[in-house]
Amino acid sequence: MKIERLSQDKIRIFLTFDDLLERGIQKDDMWREIPKVHELFSEMMEQAHTELGFDASGPLAVEIFGLPAQGMVVIVTRGKSNGQHSEGTDADEDGEDDVYEMEVTLEQSDVMMYAFRDFENVISVCHQLRNAGLSEGGRLYSYKGNWILEFEPLDPAEAGPSKTLATIALLAEYGDATSVTTAVLEEYGKTIIAADAVSEICTHFNP
Question: What is the per-residue pLDDT across 36-59, written as a single tens digit (0 to 9) for each?
Fold first, then answer.
């Protein structure tokens, strides 16, 4: 579980599938109201408080994004509590009765996003993807000292699940799945190649 602060009132949490399995939670469970999911959320808020000093009291807007073969991204935004939580002492006396006032938004994303520390790894994986006939598309960004390759979901009618898994396997061999979103990359990163990144890199760089 990785937690980072986006602003004073907003944090981002990246959950791998291993994080979910360790807690007996399946990916589809995040779309359900079950005790294990509430326990996971409480654990995330406790860790956010310990690591970042993030106070989860009051109303929270929670956005959950499912990512293919990577895990899930949870964005938590703290709203104005209007002082209501200061009077509610019962929940403070018994932690098990803590209830978060949440507005949850669930979204599923099939975008594949991988980070690479060295550009040589980007070159290598691009040649591997093209030689295997998996992809010649993609976008390349620079963000916080890393190179980020982003791929839109493959057309199931043309690719099928096996091609998607093969693409992910190659990307994971050279890089690491990242929880950064396209919106963050476009706002805070730098677009290096806006389209057909694999083809462009293979054309200009030898493996």
Answer: 888 888 888 999 999 999 988 778
148-172 pLDDT, tens digit each? 999 887 665 555 557 777 888 888 8
Please give the pLDDT value at position 161: 59
Q: Is the pTM of this model over 0.70?
A: no
Give the tens place of pLDDT for each residue, 72-104.
778 888 876 544 433 333 333 333 334 445 565
174: Cβ–Cβ under 8 A, 6 or more apart, which residues? 114, 116, 121, 122, 124, 125, 128
Distance CA 154, CA 160 (A): 8
* Largest Cα–Cα separation, the chain: 65
